Amino acid sequence: MKRFLSFCLALVLVLSLAGCSGGGTSDKTSQGVQDTQTDKGLEVMGDNVTYDPNHLVNDGEPITIDWWVWATEDMFRSIAEAYQEIHPNVTINVINNPWDGFFTKLPLALQRDEEGPTLFNVHNSYEHLLLNYMEPYAIDTEELIADYPSASTHLMDGNVYYMDYGLSTGMYYYNKDLWTEAGLTDGDIPKTWDEFIDVAQKLTKFDEDGNMIQAGYNYNNYFNSTVIGLNYQFGDNLFSADGKESLVDGKGMKEATSFLIDLYEKYRVGDKDFGTNYDQSFYQGQSAIVFAWGFFVGNLATNAPDINYGTFEIPTQDGDTPYAYYRYNGESTPGINKNATDAQKEVAQDFIRFYLASDNVQIKLSQDGGLIPAKSSLMDAPELADTPIVKTVGDHIDRYIWPGAMPSTVENNLKIAGEDILYNGKEIDDALKTAADTIDIDLANADFTSSESLYAYYED
Amino acid sequence: MKHKVLRTALYIVLALVGVITVFPFVWMVLSSFKTNGEIQSIVQTLLPQEATVDNYLNLQETFDFLRYFMNSIFIAVAVTVLVIYTSCLCGYVLGKYQFKGKNIIFGFVMMTMMVPWSVTIIPRYTMFMEAGLQDTYLSLILPVMVSGFGIFMMKQNMESIPDELIEAARIDGSNEFQTFHKLILPLCKNGISAIAIFQFLWVWEDYLWPYLMIDSEGKQLLAVGLTLFNGRYSTDYGGLFAATTISILPVIIVYVIFQKRFVAGVAAGAVKG
Q1: Cβ distance B87 to B194 under 8 Å?
Q2: Are A171 and A389 in contact (CB under 8 A)?
Q3: Chain B residues close to A19, C-beta within 8 Å
Q4: Are residues B40 and A280, on separate chains, in Cβ contact within 8 Å?
């Protein structure tokens, strides 16, 4: 034991010398080289937001910045590398963090001046945590909006601190094999809710005892994400005209909720106790149709690569263009740390301009992320034409609403409301009223204002 | 006869509890050889239907698994050894020396065990930031190198050592340094074993503090790395199970090394000698 402890102690002392030294600055040591070539012989990129690569950044002196991301590290690294190819004096350390805890650690790190990340990925639901540490983009906002129309919803005091690079929304995923088995064809893709009920019923199977053995449609464990946005089709916005209070207990949400409940209880196309997770039930071929956002494409590739699936857009009441089909959310461009040094911020601003002006970057972001490009000129890009989300909702994306950087209280409380209605027998009105009361208190505390009024057809 | 029946019943209950305790680990290990589709299948089987080692082969793709693993080994060993040493030292002083204020000092040590970590984490974070220790291993080692629990355990252990032994050593010419290192430490193997297992496990599984303090990917620890399998929208269960299976090996090895003396060490710490 003594020898063992002595050995360990000696090992620790030796390793401590190696492991503890260096401190936090070692990774900030630039690996870049001096750049003296102003004219790089490269073309100017972009339409309205343009990027002229033929200039020096940081006077060509080596400089390193950190860029914090929480996923798809390789994708972001390739973008950083493309920028570093143009400016070899710049080193961008792409640092991957777990999603869990990312927004706990990030606000702390942003207070660390030049030692913190200069660039960081943003999720709009955490805007309120990050805004105090963000530097506005040094790009003309009119140019930004001309290229990226959804940037208008991110204007704050005439500035843009972050915006969408890609848009995602919900759509229906259906199992093509079950579809064919039920005698349905491509011509049966529903355009109206009545048609939807009809095909869902054809896809629902029961055994001789009346027990469900296949669900036509399954929204279990996804009620809240489904219903938030469905209210637009039933005549209400999600938030009041001043954008401060929720309309979660309003007519639109009540009707949307009733409709979802009716799908199970009246039309029997699914059951709250059959396939308690919509996604896993779909993976197993147990449920024929599910509603999910664009991310589900990636989940299917990982978890159920053998499922032969197709997608269709959310139906409407009468098949005509509604006030809005549903809501969308954006994947956000990186934020710039206002506490970084001037040199770091100069590089970050230059990088953001490159990021937004380069079509190659934007196409890659939408391709790898399964998104609709926020840059309108890329809507018809051949590289994106075959992605499920572009094919399914690309034509109508202007008829989807971004409600704003909604705090998570909205989804959380509607999840509770859904479970109370489905599993605890609570009346729809009561459940939604409870949710609305809690949400409104939380919204007041978060100083939230909805962006619904910025929707192009808001006055309709 | 009645005694035999009771004993048999006790064994059966213990066996059942053992199976229930171990089953999740067995399930995790076996599931690490399944595809994600099979792991999430509604029809579950214990053994993989289509065994695959891809989850293990792909570990390095999610993050630098080997590096994180070695980083965790280094920190866990460093902290465990330091805690053992400081606990023995403090336990010896509090258990065997008589001086004014001893009980007050011990009271303070006990109080540190009663303060929840969540209360101290913010001031601790600020202190380490101000000291410029962010992103260094010192920030992971310093806050835990002295353990109230360890001191308590070792004080109880030290008190069970007869004073006559220490006096005999002194009479034979041993100085205090020699007495502590050559006589006392070897007599505390049981207590040291117990602390080693507890401390190694605590450091090995600690997530929040390393995550807050370490920024560089090259210095990050395995407990943080494991959370990278949890994405925003889905979890790579196969990868997570494979990584977790490997990550529990050091804990098992440490337990195997120290287990013989573990129970005796905990028992000795629980009663005053």
Answers
A1: no
A2: yes
A3: 74, 78, 137
A4: yes
CA dihedral A439, A150, A391, A181 (to 10 degrees): 0
Domains and CATH numbers, chain B: 65-232 (1.10.3720.10)
A1, A96, A115: residue with CB nearest B134: A115
Cβ pair B40, B235 in contact under 8 A: no
* Gap between the Cα atoms of A48 and A32, Å rounded: 30
Q: Name residues of chain B where pLDDT drops below 50.
A: 273
Other Cβ atoms within 10 Å of B176 Cβ, number: 13
Facing A24 at nearest CB: one of B81, B136, B189: B136
Collapsing DSSP to helix, strand or coil, A460 comes out as coil
Q: Which amino acid does the sequence have at A39?
A: D
Distance from CA of A416 to the nearest CA of B (A): 20
| Residue A229 tokens, joined | 């946005």
Q: For A181, left (φ over 0), alpha (ψ -120 to 50), or beta? A: alpha
Q: Check CB contact of A224 with chain B, cutoff 8 Å.
A: no
Helical (H) or strand (E) element with A133: none
User: Is the pTM higher than 0.90?
Assistant: no
A172 bridge partner residues: A291, A312
Mark yes or no for CB contact B41/A298 under 8 Å: no
CB contact under 8 Å between B218 and A286, yes or no, is no
pLDDT at residue number A26: 41
Chain B residues lying within 8 Å of A278, measured CB to CB: none
Domain limits, chain A: 36-163+333-357, 168-330+385-454
Q: Whole-angstrom Cα distance, residue B38 to residue B57? A: 18
CATH entry 3.40.190.10 includes domain A36-163+333-357: yes
Q: What is the pLDDT of residue A394?
A: 87
Taking residues A390-404, report their average pLDDT. 92
Residue B232: which of A23, A99, A108 has the nearest Cβ? A99
The pLDDT tens digits for A180-224 are 999 999 999 999 999 999 999 999 999 999 999 999 999 999 999
Helix (H) or strand (E) holding A309: strand A309-312
Contact A20 B141 (CB under 8 A): yes
Q: Looking at the predicted structure, is the pLDDT value of residue A5 above 80?
A: no
Which amino acid is residue A323, in one-letter code? Y
Q: Is residue A186 within a helix (H) or strand (E), and if so which, with residue range?
A: none
**Nearest by CB to A302, which of B74, B189, B236?**
B236
State the Cα torsion A387-A389-A392-A396 to the nearest 10°.
-120
Which H helix or E strand runs over A172?
Answer: strand A164-175
Task: Using a CB–CB cutoff of 8 Å, tell me whether A425 touches chain B.
Answer: no
Cβ–Cβ below 8 Å for B84 and A298 = no
Does any CB of chain A come closer than 8 Å to the CB of residue B125? yes
- Rounded CA-CA distance A40/A51 in Å is 13
Give the residue on B whose Cα is nearest the Cα of A112. B129
Q: Which fold has domain A168-330+385-454?
A: D-Maltodextrin-Binding Protein; domain 2 (3.40.190)
User: CA of A307: which chain B residue's CA is closest?
Assistant: B37
pLDDT in tens, B58-87: 888 777 899 999 999 999 999 999 999 999
Q: Are A36-163+333-357 and A168-330+385-454 equal in CATH topology?
A: yes
- Classify strands A155-156 and A159-160 as parallel, antiparallel or unpaired: antiparallel
In this structure, chain B runs to a length of 273
- ipTM for the whole complex: 0.73
Distance, CA of A283 to CA of A399 (rounded, Å): 30
Name the amino acid, one letter, at B248. Answer: I
Question: CA-CA distance, A239 to A450, in Å (whole number)?
Answer: 7
Distance CA A119, CA A65 (A): 8
d(CA B76, CA B73): 5
Q: Nearest-CA neighbor of A173 among A321, A308, A302, A271? A: A308
Q: What is the CA radius of gyration of chain A?
A: 25
